[in-house]
Structure to design on (655 residues):
């Protein structure tokens, strides 16, 4: 009992309890339950925030634990969204087409139905042919599999090439930025087969579901909460035990881990691909709540925001990433929503919609300089679990056993 | 004595500077060997080559009874083959406990998936405790290794090296930063270890080497200058010139 996984990591239970209480609270206050204290759009915002927390957990795993500053994880997030969006759009269009054609005197052939769907979906980019990548769009099961396979495969190939050539540090970060930029530029093209800059839209409508958005939003909220809980548990399990030891070792001293006989590249590839899959799943839950996905979502800046959330929340601890993502993205919604009153200075008026980014950048710099552990570090502060602050110096061979608080000289 | 590691004719050049030139020597099984030489003699480069960190321009490094070519293997594979290395500066994972450090070094499957599902068995815990007591860190198992003193970190690293159960240990200046008593303890430990495996000690402290009482290889400008007992090599006029003269 004493060595069980949960016993050694009590923060997991606390986190799951908080998540459960939060989910219950939002459910009871939602429009679906009749209380309508929280609007449907706000429930959607909260649900989306949970998805962002999930990708932040993935980012923390890859950056905070393994030391790979990936600035491309939103590419995987976006790909997950596109994959589920393809099915949602196809199926919904199909139902509408079948409905409207049912009135015709001659029943439509399957080919006519397919052509009509193609015309509806790709009309905006001047085409009606289904591109090859839509081959599986008719099947929910296959498209759900693609949510996992496509980001996973991209991460596997990209990671294999990058880690094999031992690209590390800032060069790897630049490479991941280049990847997400390339993907975004590709998706912007009409020829990409994913409707170019129009993206996929109408994703909030579940095909064949008659229930109102109030209910759909709460379902997705539950699904997001469940995914976050399960993802958190899985990540916490991965970083516990020896695997976690090795991964943190890679972060701190990669060469030393190699000389212990561990294949650093294999471990990095595992973490990179695993977190890409989590990001894909998070994206697949996010975009049906957002209702629309376009290539702008995959833009490099999104992945940089992700790193900022994790840094502000606290690297190297999973709940830190959740706190950072939730706090910063919610505050960001508040500021950019135009709800914060402007500050008139006489000669200039501070409009927070524009100035919020400055504020965010400033807080990122301040956190990096003065609180490298982020908000999560506060838990250490209150829990009196302060790490030694000897700045590398120790107390010498005889006093080495003194702890930080014992050796106050 | 069967040969465990054979280095023949290796040369390596860094930006036109020849760090190692045509270096050849061999180490037998269960041999204790000291490598000495002035700064820039190529001691560390030699270790880098053997452990796979640096690839030489020419030459061969042959390992074990299967005569495997180490130059074709990466660092992890070489370590798995049974070559352990202790660095000059103690390099332990400071953010993790002594127990985690030792558990990570313990000889077990190194792949990502076996590691993911690894849960320490009773024998693993027993082995960690045994190693900790051997290097005098029994009381510190649950402490973060970053809190240890310099000497204790050296010991922890030696413990990690033992946990790997290597067939050949490359030890770079083990006595650096140790007190006199700790140095003596280290000498005894190294002599003891060499009874069951090969140990190569790189050192420039002559007193320490004398206490090891073993065959000595003197490196100079990247090749072997002299080889034999310490008394033999210290009488060699070329060694005297390199160490004292010029």
């Amino acid at each position: 009992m004493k060595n069980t996984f949960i016993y050694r990591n009590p923060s997991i239970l606390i986190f799951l309890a908080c998540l459960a209480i939060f989910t219950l609270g939002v459910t009871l206050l939602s429009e679906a339950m009749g209380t309508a204290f929280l609007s449907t759009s706000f429930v959607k915002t909260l649900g989306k925030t949970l998805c962002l927390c999930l990708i932040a957990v993935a980012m923390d795993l890859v950056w905070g634990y393994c030391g790979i500053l990936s600035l491309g994880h939103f590419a995987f997030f976006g790909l997950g969204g596109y994959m589920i969006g393809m099915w949602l759009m196809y199926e919904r269009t199909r139902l509408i087409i079948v409905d409207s054609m049912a009135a015709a005197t001659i029943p439509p052939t399957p080919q006519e139905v397919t052509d009509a769907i193609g015309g509806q979906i790709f009309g905006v980019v001047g085409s009606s042919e289904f591109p090859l990548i839509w081959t599986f769009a008719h099947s929910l099961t296959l498209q759900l599999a693609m949510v996992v396979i496509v980001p996973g495969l991209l991460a596997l190939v990209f990671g294999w090439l990058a880690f094999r050539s031992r690209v590390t540090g800032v060069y790897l970060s630049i490479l991941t930025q280049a990847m997400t930029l390339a993907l975004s530029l590709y998706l912007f093209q009409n020829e990409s087969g994913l409707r170019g800059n129009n993206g996929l839209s109408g994703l909030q409508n579940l095909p064949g579901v008659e229930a109102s958005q109030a209910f759909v939003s709460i379902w997705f909220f539950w699904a997001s909460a469940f995914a976050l809980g399960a993802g958190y548990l899985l990540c916490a399990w991965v970083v516990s035990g020896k695997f976690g030891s090795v991964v943190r070792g890679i972060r701190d001293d990669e060469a030393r881990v190699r000389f212990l006989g561990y294949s650093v590249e294999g471990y990095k590839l595992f973490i990179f691909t695993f977190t890409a899959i989590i990001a894909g799943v998070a994206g697949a839950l996010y975009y049906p709540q957002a209702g629309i996905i376009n290539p702008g979502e995959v833009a490099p800046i999104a992945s940089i925001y992700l790193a900022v959330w994790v840094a502000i929340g606290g690297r190297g601890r999973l709940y830190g990433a959740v706190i950072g993502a939730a706090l910063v993205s919610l505050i960001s919604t508040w500021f950019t929503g135009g709800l914060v009153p402007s500050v008139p200075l006489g000669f200039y008026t501070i409009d927070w919609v524009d100035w919020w980014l400055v504020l965010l950048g400033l807080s990122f710099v301040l956190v990096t300089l003065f609180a490298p552990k982020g908000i999560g570090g506060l838990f250490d502060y209150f829990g009196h679990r302060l790490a030694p602050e000897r700045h590398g110096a120790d107390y010498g061979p005889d006093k080495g056993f003194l702890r930080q608080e014992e050796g106050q000289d | 004595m069967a040969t465990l590691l054979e280095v023949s004719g290796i040369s390596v050049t860094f930006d036109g500077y020849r760090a190692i030139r045509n270096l050849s020597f061999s180490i037998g099984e269960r041999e204790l060997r000291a490598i000495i030489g002035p700064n820039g003699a190529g001691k560390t480069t030699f270790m880098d080559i053997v452990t796979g960190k640096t690839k030489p321009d020419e030459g061969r490094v042959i390992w074990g009874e299967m005569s495997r070519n180490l130059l074709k293997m990466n660092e992890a594979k070489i370590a798995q083959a049974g070559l352990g290395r202790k660095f000059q500066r103690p390099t332990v994972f400071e953010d993790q406990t002594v127990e985690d450090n030792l558990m990570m070094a313990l000889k077990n499957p190194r792949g990502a998936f076996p590691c993911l599902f690894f849960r320490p068995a009773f024998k693993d815990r027993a082995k960690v405790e045994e190693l900790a007591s051997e290097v005098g860190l029994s009381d510190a198992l649950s402490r973060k290794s970053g809190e240890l003193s310099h000497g204790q970190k050296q010991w922890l690293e030696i413990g990690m090296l033992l946990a790997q159960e290597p067939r050949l240990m490359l030890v770079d200046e083990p006595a650096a930063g140790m007190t006199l008593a700790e140095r003596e303890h280290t000498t005894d430990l190294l002599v003891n270890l060499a009874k069951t495996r090969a140990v190569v000690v790189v050192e420039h402290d002559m007193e320490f080497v004398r206490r090891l009482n073993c065959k000595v290889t003197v490196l100079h400008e990247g090749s072997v200058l002299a080889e034999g007992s310490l008394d033999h090599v210290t009488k060699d006029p070329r060694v005297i010139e390199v160490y004292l003269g010029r």
